[in-house]
Amino acid sequence: MREIDINECHNILLNIASVFDSICRRHQIPYYMLGGTMLGAIRHKGFIPWDDDMDFGVERQYFPKLLKALSEELPPHLQLKTLDNSAHFVSNFIKIEDSRTLVFAELYDDAQEMGVFIDVFPLDQGRKNSFQTKIFASYIIFLLQLKDYLYFDPKYRKGIKKMIATMMRKSNICSYKQALNYIDRLIKRNTKDDSGYMINYYGIWGKKEIIRQEVFGQPQAYPFENITLTGVTNADAYLSSLYGNYMQLPPEEKRLFHNKGMYFRE
Questions:
Q1: What's this model's pTM, rounded to 2 decimal places?
Q2: Scanning 19, 133, 154, 249, which has its CA 20 to 30 A from the CA of 11?
């Protein structure tokens, strides 16, 4: 296998993102760049130089339509990965992976069919009352963190967290997939169409992922490298809520890749 350098990784990601964008446009499915992808669009007009994946969000109401379109229209070299068809899935969002590549992720001992990928997250609405929304979101975030103890090997944890992970895995309370499906049902039952909030429960930022709906607004076009992708209406408010002073580069020691290694399957 030949190792993929970061420039080659970015070209592969752009190809996946371009296909995703085309399918969404063809089926009138609005989507948003999220997290570091949205940050890259604003700060770098493309990729954060050390970023090796991409994040997007689609409102929950469009997700069934999106899954159907992706399953039918992705080109042969791209694969749709979900909780149901991937052994390495630990959350209820989806990945679109390039099957010609192999990725060794930070928390796994092996790649198990993971390729260079983009993540697509369902975006949910909470209750109209902001206090209720934040309380419920905190509960869901807690459950999702607890769920991780059922999946990740305890050797990746230390101290009391390692003890809890070991006990939970030995107890056989439920599988992590059963836990995820239960959590997803809770989220869907709580979703309201006029909440005033957009929430990415499966994002990495916890409570910071509770964003006023007007910040997302209607998807806006942004240049991203040599293509155009859509993102949030109020990029400044969104990025400030996640990163604070987002235009300031982090110190070099924090400019880290997500993955341990990427390779072409040759």
A1: 0.89
A2: 249
DSSP 252: G
Coarse DSSP helix, strand, coil percentages of the chain, rounded to the nearest 5 percent: 45, 20, 35
Residue 251, helix vs strand vs coil: coil
Per the structure block, which two tokens stand in for 100?
């010609």
How is residue 40 written in tokens?
Answer: 């890259």
Tally Cβ neighbours within 10 Å of residue 171. 9
Residues 6+ apart with CB under 8 A from 9: 52, 116, 262
> If DSSP codes are grouped into helix, strand and coil, which group holds residue 62?
helix
Q: Express each pLDDT in 75-118 by its tens digit.
A: 999 999 998 888 767 778 999 999 999 988 655 544 456 899 99
- Reduced to 3 states (helix: H, G, I; strand: E, B; else coil), residue 50 is coil
Eight-class DSSP state of 258: S
Domain ranges of the chain: 2-123+215-264
